[in-house]
Amino acid sequence: MKQIFEERPAVKRELDQVHATMETVIKRVEMMLVDPLIFSKKIAFVGDDDLVSLFLSVTLEKIGFKNTDFLTVYDIDTELLAFIEEKQSKEVPIRCVKKDFRNEKTTDLIKVDVVFTDPPYTPDGILTFIDFGEKLLSKYGKMYVSFNHKTPEIQSFLQKEINLKGLNFIEITPNFNTYLGGSIIGNVSNLYVLQKSEMTETMKSSENIYTKSLKKNKTSKRLGFHSLYDLKECNSEVLTSVDNVRDKMNHMSQLFNLNVVEEKFHQFKPYGVSGVMVLKESHFTIHTWPEHNYAAVDLFICEETVDESKFMEELQNIFGSKRCELKKIYRVS
């Protein structure tokens, strides 16, 4: 594997290529293999100058897995695709497809369950790669996206655009990726997990697409946005004290301009805290299990005014969480 890593094609700066370290590539492969259902899924890579597909192919062959319809790589770099085809495992071959994501038609795409992409640095580059990946995803499919943290304005813009594509942020791992010579992105980037939302599938099947039909039928109204955060591998000491948890929740409410009307916190024995903040916008709650290094946080707001990826990052920061999963529910009448 080390030899393959050393022989890979040189980066092409005109394509914003920056190679991830071998440790990062191995972490990405390990992350995929943690899923026990991964062997029954199809995986596509939207750009893969880091050779994650190749490392995954070789690893799967070593553990005895065989599948000729498992991995696909889409990339504009013909030299890279040729290298992957040369080095791939015969037992787990990689389908390599030359694609320019900016202007090529997407009618011939094969649906997959998992998409992995590490797009260019620019907001347009990120959204172009994600847009192509979304077209590949089957219903409820997941997309793993790596990009460095942006300014609050750009981060908020990206989040809204990604949500409009029918994708929800469900997990974030800060500083997951490390790069060789990626000074323009600070040599590190976050890993975001997105999931194709159920609501998008429902909206596509609606017959009420004209104004006249909407007037005749009672229409649903979106009443709120309910975000469920599972904070895992937390610092247990932070979760134990009711005063500490209350302070953290107040910090979050102030930082994200949540208007608290009333609050109630309770200390359980021997440990554990539950807290409720009634907001003008709806509610903000927490339940902690220090013995499991876990906390469940709910945020229910009437308007989508909170940058959920930034909110998730701050939750992880103050509770010392190494992993966070987000489930998002639209409350509709």
Automatic annotation (TrEMBL):
One GO CC term, this protein: cytosol
Pfam families per record: AdoMet_dc, BpsA_C
Gene Ontology biological process terms from the UniProt entry: methylation; spermidine biosynthetic process
GO molecular function terms noted in the UniProt entry: adenosylmethionine decarboxylase activity; methyltransferase activity; nucleic acid binding
The entry's keywords: Autocatalytic cleavage, Decarboxylase, Lyase, Polyamine biosynthesis, Pyruvate, S-adenosyl-L-methionine, Schiff base, Spermidine biosynthesis, Zymogen
Stored SUPFAM superfamilies: S-adenosyl-L-methionine-dependent methyltransferases, S-adenosylmethionine decarboxylase
Cofactor(s) required, per the database record: pyruvate
InterPro entries per record: AdoMetDC_C, AdoMetDC_fam_prok, AdoMetDC_N, BpsA_C, DNA_methylase_N6_adenine_CS, S-AdoMet_deCO2ase_core, S-AdoMet_deCOase_pro-enz, SAM-dependent_MTases_sf
N(4)-bis(aminopropyl)spermidine synthase C-terminal domain boundaries: 2-215
PANTHER family: S-ADENOSYLMETHIONINE DECARBOXYLASE PROENZYME (PTHR33866:SF2)
Name of this protein: Adenosylmethionine decarboxylase
